[in-house]
Design a protein that fits this description.
The protein is α+β, with helices and mostly antiparallel strands. About 15% of the residues lie in helices and about 20% in strands.
């Protein structure tokens, strides 16, 4: 049984322009692409990461949190 609830919100920071945006993460899937609302850049995960939240967010995606027992 998991003691800590999953974090469902993450702030994505664009590596191109620095724009920050709060987003709600899906609980059952990874998000592969994200369009920055500041500059329009299309973000994709860094090598080794499953999604944009794991690469650019303040919290990893819920599937990764669950697998880590976070």
């Amino acid at each position: 049984m998991q003691d800590n609830p999953l974090i469902l919100q993450s702030i994505i920071t664009c590596p191109d322009c620095g724009h920050r945006e709060m987003e709600i993460m899906p609980t059952d899937a990874c998000r592969f692409f994200y369009h920055c609302k500041g500059c329009g850049a299309q973000l994709k995960p860094k090598p080794g990461d499953c999604c944009v939240f794991c690469s650019y967010g303040t919290a990893p995606c819920p599937p990764v949190q669950a697998s880590r027992g976070c």
